[in-house]
From TrEMBL:
PROSITE patterns in alphabetical order: THIOL_PROTEASE_CYS
Record's protein name: Peptidase C1A papain C-terminal domain-containing protein
InterPro entries per the UniProt record, alphabetical: Papain-like_cys_pep_sf (IPR038765), Pept_cys_AS (IPR000169), Peptidase_C1A_C (IPR000668)
Organism expressing this protein natively: Ancylostoma caninum (Dog hookworm)
Pfam families linked: Peptidase_C1
Residues of the Peptidase C1A papain C-terminal domain: 102-154
Length: 157
């Protein structure tokens, strides 16, 4: 009997959460870095809308699709285009283009956008157009929202 009363009191004490109320809550810094089962536990504790389940297979598939950094190489100096030739371009624009091409790094400009640093492995993919489009959309969502929207859009979406 006491258990039933405790359940009833708990049910009435809990404030129903709407999606709007849930989205208005800030995500703590530590939670933004959770992965694996710890992330699943956090999600299940902090929202009533669905039950998350950890899938090691899905995590492995995601890791498999992100290219290993050992394949990244800095281009040789002779491979980098340094001369910008334009049709009657004003010199100021040429200097600006040169500076942007020489010094601009999106990873430094938007460090909060982790999708910019993510390189997806397209070597075993017949739909590279979908993979690259999804990556560009993920980057643009983050950049255009000033880092408030951070999602990795799937090429399957």
């Amino acid at each position: 009997m006491w258990i039933f009363i405790a359940l009833v009191v708990t049910a009435f004490a809990a404030e129903p959460t709407t999606i709007e109320q849930f989205l208005a809550k800030p995500i703590p810094e530590y939670a933004q870095h959770l992965t694996g089962q710890a992330l699943v536990d956090y999600v299940n504790e902090h929202q009533p809308f669905f039950k998350a389940v950890y899938s090691p297979e899905a995590e492995e598939l995601t890791k498999f699709r992100i290219m290993d950094s050992k394949f990244l190489v800095k281009p040789k100096k002779e491979e980098v285009l340094t001369d910008i030739v334009g049709d009657e371009e004003p010199p100021e624009k040429l200097i600006l283009l040169y500076l942007l091409n020489t010094f601009f790094d999106a990873r430094e400009r938007w460090p909060q956008c982790t999708s910019i640093r993510t390189i997806r492995d397209q070597s075993k993919c017949g739909s590279c157009w979908a993979v690259s489009s999804a990556g560009a959309m993920s980057d643009q969502l983050c950049v255009q929202s000033n880092g408030t929207i951070k999602v990795l859009i799937s090429d399957l979406d």
